[in-house]
Recover the amino acids of this structure.
């Protein structure tokens, strides 16, 4: 099975993401009806995202460019019009190397009635590669070298006074991000008296994660729900590198989450049926904290007609996700196309073909896919 975004840092993302293929399919009258139906309802202050009792939230990452943070009203509106549904959870990244809180992106999401899901990633921008020195190592975070930045970021998050989902250090059980446990001691036994894990790599991640959360809470960022976001498969697939080994603990996890993709890259590697990306991993993830909701924080599949039927994959996924996984609160579709190092493309967009778009529109049209967040009072 293919890992999630093993070359995410080296993608030559294309930002001329025209959606004209789908938009031309809509008459002016039909587009106007959809636009009225998708009118934004800004998120009020002082509320908390509720876990829906029926259905799951529709979420998306929408072609957000090289830094994964190119978010605009126009881009979100074009996507929503194309698929025929509003986005309840809007995902994008915040790279530590930019040293800023994503204020503009969060404002767009909140103004449109979407809850931001922020992948808060401790690496440089632009990322120089895994072989380069990284100032944002887990050990540097634990030592307090970036406390000023964390406090500034968290203070700005608190000032929004609206709900945020924040995933620190996503997919740490992979080998494609510099905060991976693989690069922080891996499975070396951790014998310190204060160890939080039996292995050095997971111990470093847990300690860094807790340090970040503790600082953010001390800054008053109680509007953040903390998302523990793993990859479905572990690379390397060793006991020390399983998701449960990285668990920061119930007091530090509000939402359990994972990435689960079908085929992403051209060339070798067979088609992976949708159920095989989810079923072996959903149960073990949910078992880490039986009282926490689960989020499919990234999912998608490329358009590779010689390997498999993307439209059929989407139909199956969009039908099963709100029905077969009772702890699931939402799913975030990864809508992006990029050029790989060999010049070939990976097209995970909903409109990668007419058949894919038709299947996607029909699937998210199911009322079990919720486009309007539900609220609890904080």
């Amino acid at each position: 099975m293919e890992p999630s975004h093993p070359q995410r840092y080296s993608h030559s993302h294309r930002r001329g993401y025209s959606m004209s293929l789908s938009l031309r399919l809509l008459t002016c009258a039909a587009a106007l009806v959809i636009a009225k139906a998708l009118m934004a309802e800004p998120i009020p202050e002082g509320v908390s995202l509720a876990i829906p009792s029926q259905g799951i939230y529709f979420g998306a990452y929408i072609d957000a460019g090289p830094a994964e943070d190119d978010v605009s009203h126009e881009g979100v509106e074009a996507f929503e019009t194309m698929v025929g549904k509003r986005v309840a959870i809007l995902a994008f990244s915040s790279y530590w190397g930019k040293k800023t809180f994503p204020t503009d992106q969060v404002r767009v999401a909140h103004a449109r009635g979407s809850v931001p899901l922020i992948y808060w990633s401790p690496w440089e921008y632009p990322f120089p590669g895994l072989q380069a020195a990284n100032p944002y190592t887990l050990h540097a975070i634990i030592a307090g070298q970036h406390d000023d930045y964390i406090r500034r970021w968290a203070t700005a998050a608190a000032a929004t006074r609206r709900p945020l989902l924040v995933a620190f250090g996503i997919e740490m059980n992979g080998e494609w991000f510099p905060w991976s446990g693989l690069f922080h001691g891996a499975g070396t036994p951790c014998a310190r008296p204060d160890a939080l894990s039996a292995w050095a790599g997971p111990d470093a991640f847990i300690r860094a994660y807790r340090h970040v959360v503790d600082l953010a809470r001390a800054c008053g960022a109680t509007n953040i729900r903390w998302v523990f976001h793993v990859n479905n498969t572990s690379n390397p697939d060793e006991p020390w590198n399983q998701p449960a080994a990285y668990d920061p603990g119930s007091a530090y996890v509000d939402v359990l989450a994972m990435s689960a993709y079908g085929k992403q890259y051209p060339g070798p590697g067979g088609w992976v049926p949708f159920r095989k990306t989810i079923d072996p991993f959903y149960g073990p993830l949910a078992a880490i904290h039986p009282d926490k909701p689960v989020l499919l924080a990234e999912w998608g599949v490329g358009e590779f007609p010689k390997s498999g039927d993307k439209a059929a994959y989407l139909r199956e996924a969009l039908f099963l996700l709100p029905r077969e996984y009772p702890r699931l609160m939402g799913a975030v579709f990864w809508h992006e196309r990029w050029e790989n190092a060999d010049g070939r493309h990976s097209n995970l967009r909903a409109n990668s073909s007419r058949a894919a778009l038709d299947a996607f529109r029909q699937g998210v049209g199911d009322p079990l896919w919720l486009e309007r967040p539900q609220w609890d009072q904080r």
